[in-house]
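Help needed: design a sequence for this.
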């Protein structure tokens, strides 16, 4: 996160760290992406976060990537579902969404606490200019590497036509994407934040309106962050979550 602030304990309880097991190790996992808890057993993340055939886990309820915190819950990923029309081209990433099904013990996966809580799925388009929140352990203006502490920043929803202006992203955007940020630059998501939440509050409820997806570098003037438009994928998400799991 560029231009961010440290998150306090319990501040973004739906934020997860999506982690992949390091090759040739037994139990060493590294952070690859953010993700969003949307149900006890389901995490939304970006399609481009998935490395095929790798063991994955999610860590929820923590703020620091390099310390074990008593508030954390770590759960293995049982199943990965990448969108059937996920497509990465040289200019953009389309349908950049995937679902992670978590391992359960007697039907329970994540346990709701002050530090671990699902975000709601949005049920409507939200207005341009609305202030929303992004978060993650990705690169900052000080460090090309990620941040060890979870950071957050406020961004504004940007009109799709304005974001498709030739001076911004031109004609490469589609309806699976939305832009958010500050056109003057400085505040943005960045590498390592991918898959994590853009949440917007309505009536004191937080809705996951976007997933960090891509952008032309980070924090640059006229190059806002591009997010997966979660409302566009509601039927897809519901169909996958309601479908019987492979083992049952
Ligand atoms: C990335 O490389 C990336 N400024 C993520 C988000 C943004 C740019 C790049 C948005 O994963």
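Sure. Designed sequence:
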């Amino acid at each position: 996160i560029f231009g961010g602030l440290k998150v306090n304990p319990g501040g973004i309880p739906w934020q997860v760290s999506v982690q992949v097991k390091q090759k040739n190790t037994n139990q060493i996992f590294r952070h690859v992406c953010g993700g969003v808890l949307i149900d006890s057993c389901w995490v939304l993340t970006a399609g481009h976060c998935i490395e095929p055939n790798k063991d994955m886990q999610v860590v929820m309820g923590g703020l620091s990537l390099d310390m074990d915190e008593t508030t954390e819950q770590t759960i293995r990923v049982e199943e990965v579902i990448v969108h059937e029309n996920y497509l990465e081209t040289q200019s953009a990433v389309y349908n950049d969404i995937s679902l992670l099904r978590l391992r359960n013990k007697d039907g329970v996966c994540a346990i709701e606490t002050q530090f671990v809580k699902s975000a709601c799925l949005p049920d409507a388009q939200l207005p341009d200019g609305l202030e929303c929140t992004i978060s993650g352990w990705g690169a900052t203006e000080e460090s090309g590497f990620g941040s060890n502490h979870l950071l957050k920043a406020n961004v504004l929803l940007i009109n799709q036509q304005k974001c498709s202006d030739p001076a911004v992203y031109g004609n490469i955007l589609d309806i699976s994407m939305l832009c958010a940020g500050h056109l003057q630059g400085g505040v943005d998501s960045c590498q390592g934040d991918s898959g994590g939440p853009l949440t917007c509050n309505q009536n004191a409820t937080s809705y996951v309106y976007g997933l960090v997806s891509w952008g032309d570098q980070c924090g640059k003037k006229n190059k806002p962050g591009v997010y997966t438009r979660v409302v566009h994928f509601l039927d897809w998400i519901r169909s996958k979550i309601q479908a019987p799991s492979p083992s049952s």
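Residues 217 and 234 are 29 Å apart (CA to CA).
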